[in-house]
Amino acid sequence: MTTPEKSTRPHSAFRDPKAGFVKIPVATSSRPRRGCCCGHSECKIVSKAWVALGDIRGAMFQLPAVSDQTRKRKQREIKAGRLNRINAHLNTNSEGSVDRRNRSKEGPPMLTRGEEAKKTPARHVECFAAHHIDPIILSKFQREDTIPLSFLKENGLWGNGFTDADKVKHLDGDMCCYVVPSYSLENTKHDLVHVQRHEELNDLIAKVVERRKVKHQLRSANNNPKTTTPDMNNAKRQKLSSSAAYTEDLEAAICMLHEQLEAFTK
Question: Are 131 and 57 in contact (CB under 8 A)?
Answer without folding.
Answer: yes
